[in-house]
Amino acid sequence: MALHLEQGIQLEEEERFREAIAEYDLAALEEPENPVPLYRKGALLNELGDFEHALLSLNAALTINSRDIDALAARGDVYSSLKRYEEAIADFSIVVSIVPDDVDSYYNRGLAYADTGRIERAIQDFSTAIQMDPNHGGAYNNRGLAFFRSGDYAAALQDFTQAITVRSGFACSYTHRGRVQEALGDAGKALEDYGKALDMSPTDATTLFFRGALYFALNEPERGRRDYEVLIETAPRDNAFRTLAMKKLELV
C-alpha cells in the first residue's frame, strides 16, 4: 500500500478527517490509476455530509474502474442523500449484478424504491436483505414502514416487532409500532409503545407529536399539551411536527 493512502486511512481511523482527505489527494497523485484513494475520499466526504464533493471524487474513481463496487455503492449512497433516487437505484443495481449477496445494496436500493413510492419493489429488496441477514433490524423496520404505507397493518406489526427483537436501542421501531397499534384501534398498546420510545429518546419529535395527538384524541388535553410543549421546546425550529404542535396550541 502506498505511503499516502496508508497514512490517509490511519488519519481517518483517528478521526482527523481533513488531514485524511489531504493524504488521499496526495495518494491519488501518487497512484493515478488506483481508484481506492478517490473512493476513500469520496466515502469520507459522504460521511461528512459534503455530498457534491463526494460525488466528484467517486465519479473520478469510477472513471478509472467503472465496476468498482465500493465506489458504486458509495455513489449510490450519495445519490440517495441528494434525492437523485433513480441514479442511486442504478448504482445499487450494478453492485448486486456483480455481487448478488451484497446485503447493504439490496437494503439501500429498497430505501430508494420506498422514497420513490415503489412500495412493492422496496418490500422485495428488504425481503431479500432479510433472507440474507435474518438479524437486519433496519430491513425489518423499513419493510414494516412499507407494509404500513400499503395498508397491510398485520405485516407491519410483525416487522416492527421483529425489528425490536433483533436490535436494541432504536426508539423509532417502537414509535412505528405505536402508529400501527393506533391504526388497529388499540390506543392502550399505542401509548405503551410511544412510552417505550420516549424512555429511550425523551425528546424525539415524531414520538412526542403522535403521542400528543393521541392524547388529544382520547380527550386528555393536558397530557397532549405537555407532549407538545416538550416538542416545541426541544425540536429544531424548522421541524414540521414542531410547527403542527404550535398550531394546535395556537401559538402561531
Tag the structure with descriptive keywords.
252 residues; mainly alpha
Summarize this, please?
By secondary structure, the protein is mostly helical.
| Class based on secondary structure composition and strand pairing | mainly alpha
Residue runs with pLDDT of under 50 for 5 or more positions: none
Kindly provide the radius of gyration, computed on alpha-carbon positions and rounded to a whole number of angstroms.
22 Å
Mean pLDDT: 96
Given the C-alpha coordinates, what overall shape results? globular
The rounded distance between the terminal residues' Cα atoms is: 60 Å
> What is the number of helices?
15
The ordered string of helix (H) and strand (E) elements is HHHHHHHHHHHHHHH
Multimeric state of these chains?
Answer: single chain
Helix content: over 70%
Task: Kindly estimate the percentage of residues that lie in beta strands according to DSSP.
Answer: under 5%
According to DSSP, the number of beta strands is 0
**Biggest beta sheet summary:** none
Layout of helices and strands:
Layout lengths: L2 H11 L3 H14 L5 H12 L3 H14 L4 H13 L3 H14 L4 H13 L3 H14 L4 H14 L2 H14 L4 H13 L3 H14 L4 H13 L3 H14 L5 H9 L4
Helix pairs in contact: 1-2, 1-3, 2-3, 3-4, 3-5, 4-5, 5-6, 5-7, 6-7, 7-8, 7-9, 8-9, 9-10, 9-11, 10-11, 11-12, 11-13, 12-13, 13-14, 14-15
Describe the structure.
78% of the residues lie in helices and 0% in strands. By secondary structure, it is mostly helical. The protein has helices at 3-13, 17-30, 36-47, 51-64, 69-81, 85-98, 103-115, 119-132, 137-150, 153-166, 171-183, 187-200, 205-217, 221-234, 240-248. The model has no long low-confidence stretch (mean pLDDT 96). It contains 15 helices and no strands. The protein is globular and about 70 Å long.
